[in-house]
Predict the 3D structure of the following.
Amino acid sequence: MQNNKKFKTVGIKKERIDAPSKIRGFAKYTDDFYFPDMLYGKLKRSPYAHAIIESIDCSKALEIEGVRAVITGKDLPIKYGILPVTQDETALAIDKVRYVGEPVVAICADTEEIAEKALDFVEIKYKELDKVLSIEEAFEKKHVRVHESEKFEGNAHRVISLEFGDTETAFKECDYVREDIFFYSGSTHLSMETHSVVAYFDGKRLTVYASHQAPYYLHLILSKALEIEQRNIKIIIPYVGGGFGGKLDPFPEIVCASKLSMIAKKPVKITLEREEVFYNHRGRHPVLTWVKTGLKNGKIRAMHFKSFLDGGAYGSFGVACAYYQGALQPVTYKIPDYKVQTVRFYTNKPPCGPKRGHGTPQPRFALECHLDKIAEDLNIDPVDLRLKNLTEPYSVTCNYLKITTNGLKECIEKVINESKFKEKFRKLPYGEGVGFAVSSYLSGAALPIYWGETPHSEVIIKADRSGVISVYSGHTEIGQGSDTVLSYIVAETLGIEPEEIALVLRDTDSVPPDLGSYSSRVTMMMGNAAYEAAMKLKRALSEAVSEILEESEENLIFKEGKIISKNNPEKFVSLKDAIKKAEEKFGALSFSGSYKPAPILGKYKGAGVGPSPAYSFTACVVQVKVDTESGFIKPIKVWIAHDIGKCINRKNVEGQIEGSVYMALGEALMEKSDYTKEGFLKNPSFLDYKTLSMKDMPEIDVYVIETYEEKGPFGAKEVGQGPLLPVIPALCNAVYDAIGIRFDEIPITPDKVLEAIERDKKRVGPDKIIDFKFPEPIKVEPPKEDFLQNKL
Amino acid sequence: MKRILNLKINGKNYEILSSDNRTLLEVLREDLNLTGTKWGCDTGECGACVVLIDGIPQLSCLTLAVFCEGKEITTVEGIPEKEMEEIEKILTEEGAVQCGFCTPGMVIMMKYLKDCGFNNSLDIKEELSGNFCRCTGYKKILDACIKILNKHAK
């Protein structure tokens, strides 16, 4: 896999293999499945943010003609959750509700109309409780307990306190120290496809079609929640109409549709209405961040982060999200001594969880704005400040993350030159500005959610005398292009066209496990497994063909559907004949590939969040124009360079970067999950939850930097999440350059801009953090200089 | 109360037994299994359900099926093959498709704009701004649309 190798498909071809069926409307998503005699399910949701359920009377609903089954929390009493450490959810609320929109009763009926009508006949008596709707309330109103368990003091769900090295001493050595406070508002994924499920229980086995990103975790959790052996559950994931992290949890509608079908003995479909998707949420955590950095001679000497997360009513991926608040800063910058303190609170709002970038966009926003201020204080160029502090390729961080390829310097040089940043910075007229930021992200989490020694991705390849080459994989295609990555890798290896490969996908009965589409892991892990499987088939074919052509295996080339002698191109065998010969020689041709990341290096509690086989790096410049009359911020242009390792499909890579820019601009300027004082979401629709339309999008110049990562298939790293990260702080820094006001709080909506201008404010953002007492940190000695040498 | 609706969809005549309160989107998806037209919001906000009614793009989630009698309906499945081949080629080459859920609505809009004939006064971004996409950042969709329209510039 050298970088100078000439490829036929990888990095060359443009076409996504799923595009034609999606363009023609043939591609099936979960809601596109209709089965004979299928029933429709609906969920009755809580109108209160926090209330005791005194009684539920479903008798009148059951009397309605066409209603087939009704369930309440008592029918699904087993607690579950996506993370083993937070098994705090049930599909339907038992005893009390914890957010507006929490499902309480599920009904299935012959038609959607009947099911909806029946919901009105369910009588639920609630007794309202006091509620907590923000980080401050969760901390201060200690009498309110979102979860009663004594494990959680106040409403603190998870507290993290880690120290790498000795920050106290390090800060004393600094010649400059600065502290800042930031607030990152919550937002949601808003995939185009709403969550949908069709479940069918045939008396013994349960089949579930679901719009979901991680069928194997769903498999595990359904087994627990429904008390069915895993071997009796089959999950099929059709095309998924966008995920962004919003389809990773074992959502209530999936558990309920399954349970309803077990009672009604018929297929049950539940497709959420758009408003309901906002209650499923699991979106971006609102985070209050305090950061302190000390420098000595322009180099970062010590850093301290305190983060306070508004987690919503349940755990979801929250513990991981909390750890990610501190995990990746040392991957971008050399930080000799580093302290991370984080607390996630339960609040009476829909649960927060993983959204594109997981728990890293909030600290990234804080850090990159903070560094912009430091550069200004010290009168040094913000680009030079970054360049002076970047991590080295093939190095280890203070928190024991191993960096391999690192193209950040190249990324920075590219965007700075192309945007003419230095000619514009602090030089544009009032109202116009440029801002700069950088970031890093993981190419797949090195640890699975359920720890163990089994591979993270497995792929099977099968070939037979008909010439068909089938590839079996359980990864999910959520729009990121993983089907294309799979077929490109196999096609490149075997010298065939990607379209010639039959893909057998996402049916847990038929395909081997893959942990799913999250943590930017699919290209790295599925890709490596696919490459290994394809190489095994290639070796078997080579052995068979070398006999026919009387040529050594090393002298065979796989090209254009043929296996050709390197010495004499006239001598060749078609792939079909080669497969037939190999089948005669070896019997059935079926080979597997597996991928498991290397063991993590850190030994401390929490060391499992952050490690990855490789990291991607991104640099970004944003230019804005601020209309000081209306307060509107118009992004004019974005220059963004991303170290992808190696493009498998360039158009797809560009598309991921452009999509990340779009989503980041939305979070920076308008996207916000906004609640009333009663805990009602104010904006649960496409119109009210503001996003950018085609008209609002700026010009984007994308630069793909290839560093050829040896751990990645054909050198590839991730692109799905990393490019979102630097855009938000780059925009904030650009707004400061334009109008001289620091926005330490996002989204930067026009009302905030106008108010700041009118009142002559120099800064908009939180001025204090809460007085939470973190425990003494777990002390971790950073790795010694020669640490990696000893490890290799 | 149900009655028989006579609908002409993609050049085919259908007799459909349906109640008056059903939308065209429901009839297309549930009765005819024409699932290329997507259900994204049911409130006319996202554009995933756009179809052509007598050549004009309409939100099928806000259109009652009874109002469509006597009109020609075109869904993504009904775009003539020659036109579809061109649209498919350009959208695929440009990388304009990711999750694909907004794609049929976008394709219908592109077909409409193409039929209108491209001219310089046409604000493509304005025309497509009613179709939401959460994946692409719109750039490659816009590029593909411009390429299609340029091919048919009048």
User: Anything to note?
Assistant: Helices of chain B lie at 24-31, 81-94, 103-116, 124-128, 139-151. Chain B touches chain A through 53 residues (CB under 8 Å).
